[in-house]
Write a structure and sequence with these properties.
Layout lengths: L2 H7 L5 H16 L9 H13 L5 E3 L2 E5 L9 E7 L18 E2 L2 E3 L3 H18 L8 E7 L22 E4 L7 E5 L1 E10 L3 E2 L8 H14 L12 E10 L5 E2 L2 E10 L5 H11 L3 E4 L7 E2 L5 H8 L4 E4 L12 E3 L14 E3 H16 L5
Parallel strand pairs: 3-6, 3-7, 7-17, 8-16
Antiparallel strand pairs: 1-2, 2-6, 4-5, 5-18, 8-15, 9-13, 9-14, 10-12, 11-13
Helix pairs in contact: 2-4, 4-8
Length: 367
């Protein structure tokens, strides 16, 4: 047991019980398939778990949320959020993805790392503070759905139903480091037009050649930024389709571009730049995730830094993109394990996550 755990145990809280409950809840959730849009059974399980602990819950679709027992509207409210949906298991699994086997102090199973570990650690943190009377803040726990697909029935469907949130901790596997900024995500579907003709003669206007020019631009263009700063926009061509037959010059070539961007550039600025440099026509897919950013001097960040946590810019997207308040993405587990075969998380990682979450809130100094 580490130093943080010992400090809290001397205050009379049985963290060992929280650890055990978290592991049992995670094991149960792993046994229940909860693909995005199909999370009703895991929502039922989480709702039942919280109700069993005397917590009044609210539910909309497959999202469950609740508040600390002595909620005080005059105090700021901190959102503790993580998701209980998963991706589908890939074909490289050598284990049963729904069998929560514990080996070598690790629990294996689909969703154990992304984001089961962060989810149960945040639930444990909420339980730790639930009945405390003199908290300087309120807590809102939200366990949400459809994160993996940015679905309309996930967290954004309940933002207007929850009480006003001041700032948030979003539980994702970050090795308990603090992602103080997260890139937004946008996908565009492009079409380059040409004119069909016979491949054996100098006929037609090859749409693939037009597409190649634009693809090269997407590959190499750098958005202006101050020296020594990371690139604010990353554009990657991820799909391409052109032509219908080997001897016909294609009149159309379609390709898709995945775009990740930080707070230095807006969606409109990126789109205008693409329009000014390419000849393709394109449409923007729905569900553009905006970038998130929290000030390095925010009390939540200062509290994390005092605990030895490091800050970084996250290249991946999460439900942070739907939040309109400052937020930190932080949780046990490792993002590199997400969506991989034979997913797992260390039991010690979950316990450490609970300890650090609790200490983060215990040391939080609000003005």
């Amino acid at each position: 047991m580490n130093t943080i755990s010992k400090i809290h145990l001397t205050q009379g809280t049985d963290l060992n019980q929280l650890y055990q409950q978290s592991l049992e809840l995670l094991s149960t959730l792993i046994t229940i398939p909860s693909f995005s849009g199909e999370e009703s059974l895991t929502a039922n399980e989480i709702e039942s778990f919280l109700n069993t602990h005397g917590i009044n819950t609210f539910r909309k679709h497959n999202n469950i949320w609740c508040y600390n027992k002595y909620f005080d509207a005059s105090k700021p409210t901190i959102l503790l959020n993580s998701h209980h949906d998963t991706v589908r298991p890939n074909g490289q699994y050598s284990r049963d993805p729904f069998n929560p086997v514990i080996e070598d102090e690790k629990i294996h199973g689909l969703g154990s790392n992304d984001a089961g570990g962060p989810l149960v650690a945040l639930i444990a943190t909420f339980l730790y503070f639930f009945e405390r009377k003199e908290l300087p803040f309120n807590l809102c726990l939200a366990t949400t759905a459809e994160e993996e697909t940015s679905g309309e029935l996930g967290i954004r469907s309940i933002l207007n139903d929850m009480k006003t949130i001041s700032f948030a901790i979003v539980g994702e596997p970050t090795c308990m480091q603090m992602a103080i900024a997260e890139k937004g995500s946008m996908v565009i579907d492009c079409v380059s037009k040409g004119r069909a003709g016979h491949a054996a003669r100098e006929e037609g206007d090859n749409a693939i050649y037009h597409a190649l020019k634009d693809i090269e631009w997407f590959r190499h263009y750098l958005f202006p930024i101050m020296d020594d700063q990371p690139q604010p926009v990353k554009m990657t061509v991820t799909e391409i389709k052109g032509g219908i037959q080997h001897n016909i010059v294609p009149d159309e070539c379609r390709f898709t571009v995945d775009i990740r961007f930080d707070h230095n550039y807006t969606e409109r600025e990126i789109i205008n730049t693409i329009i000014n440099h390419t000849s393709c026509h394109f449409t923007i897919r729905a569900n553009v995730l905006k970038p998130s950013y929290i000030d390095i001097l925010h009390p939540l960040v200062i509290s994390g830094l005092s605990l030895g946590r490091k800050t970084y810019l996250s290249p991946t997207s999460s439900d942070q993109g739907w939040l309109d308040m400052p937020s930190v993405k932080m949780g046990p587990g490792n993002s590199a394990r997400s969506h991989t075969a034979d997913e797992f998380i260390g039991i010690e990682e979950i316990e450490e996550g609970i300890d650090i979450y609790i200490s983060l809130l215990e040391t939080l100094e609000l003005s």
